[in-house]
Design goal:
The chain folds into two domains: about 200 residues, 2-enoyl-CoA Hydratase, Chain A, domain 1 (Alpha-Beta Complex), CATH 3.90.226.10; about 50 residues. The chain has ten helices and ten strands. With about 260 residues, it is of the alpha/beta class. The strands form two sheets. A six-stranded mixed beta sheet has the order 1-2-3-5-7-10, sandwiched between helices. It has a four-stranded mixed beta sheet with strand order 4-6-8-9.
């Protein structure tokens, strides 16, 4: 496997580190393909949690612009092709995983790197982290789901403000605004992220998967429609061994032993 990402296998969960620290973990085509393969393997193995972070002093600076430099090309780059070939399949894959995906943002998250983080289920940050929608600085729009995530998480006013000004926001501000889940002192981040990954990997995976699906589906449903959606997901959860184990453990006043199986 390419060393552009590092994968640590913890049996029930995996830790993936973006690993181009000299480039602030910016994406080249190779890193895209290797990361996608790692996530596809995790999906095929029914891994029960995924932790995504970055090596070195940053999380991800987005696209390596050296690979998309118009001055080195005979014609302008086809950025739509870059998105449909690399970024969009990656974001869709992350969103489709049954397992919770935790992102530990250990430093700057810029451009598509910021939006990669926002595609994950739970985002934890170092108090040294910053989020920058840097696209406007080079005449682009936020991609990799950026205009969708910003608008749904923050509302139109803040989404436009961040996108049009490319103004960095701190981890504390991101937490205050509801852009991410929690911020930790820098030296505590990875330990806290690993603890959470371990906890979720030992949880009721069927329930977690359906929580994700129900929340994702809520974007396009009315309340009345969504009540039926919840009922269908709850039927699946109620038929799982984890529900039976959870109820038994509750009544017996013991810690549940979830298997994550249907």
């Amino acid at each position: 496997m390419s060393d552009t990402i590092l994968v640590t296998d913890h049996a029930e969960w995996i830790e993936i580190s973006l690993n181009r620290p000299d480039k602030l973990n910016s994406f080249n085509d190779e890193m895209h393909l290797v990361l996608r393969k790692a996530l596809e393997d995790a999906k095929a193995r029914n891994i029960r949690a995924v932790l995504l972070t970055g090596s070195g002093r940053g999380f991800c600076a987005g696209q390596d612009l050296g690979d998309r430099d118009p001055s080195k090309m005979k014609t302008p780059p086809n950025l739509a092709e870059t998105l449909t070939t690399f970024y969009n399949p990656l974001i869709r894959l992350i969103r489709s995983l049954d397992a919770p995906v935790i992102c530990a943002v250990n430093g700057v998250a810029a451009g598509a790197g910021a939006n990669l983080a926002l595609a994950c289920d739970i985002v934890l940050t170092s108090d040294k982290a910053k989020f920058i929608q840097s696209f406007a600085n080079v005449g682009l729009i936020p991609d990799a789901g950026g205009t969708w995530s910003l608008t749904h998480l923050l509302g139109e006013a803040r989404a436009k403000g961040l996108a049009l000004t490319a103004q960095p926001i701190t981890a504390e501000q991101a937490e205050d605004w509801g852009l991410i889940w929690k911020t930790y002192p820098h030296e505590e981040l990875i330990d806290e992220a690993r603890k959470l990954s371990e906890r979720l990997a030992n949880g009721p995976t069927v329930g977690f998967s359906n929580i994700k699906k129900a929340i994702h589906a809520s974007r396009s449903n009315t309340m009345d429609e969504h009540l039926d959606v919840e009922a269908n997901f709850q039927k699946t959860c109620g038929e799982s061994p984890d529900y039976a184990e959870g109820v038994s453990a509750f009544l017996e006043k013991r810690k549940p032993n979830f298997t994550g199986k249907l």
